[in-house]
Amino acid sequence: MVQIKNVEKKILDLEGFEIEFWQNGHNVPGNKDGLPQYQYKKMAKNDMTVQEWKRTRFKKCFPGYDVEVLDGNGQPAHGATKLGNLRGSF
Question: What is the SS3 assignment for 88?
């Protein structure tokens, strides 16, 4: 089991965008531990949307948590944003 900050870094390194963990309407501190590692080894396809990524990847790995996907300016990305466009903002 790992800390949230380590999972966030792994997702940044693999997927090419930043995220924040949320639970019950609050940002979860990075030093919280007990999470499984992000299980994917290949980045999601560029034509996948943020909303699809949340549903098909994040929620399957981390049930009970919500996620905010951030663009290159640190702003929340719209759910319809294609991951390729999101990655290009960094």
Answer: helix
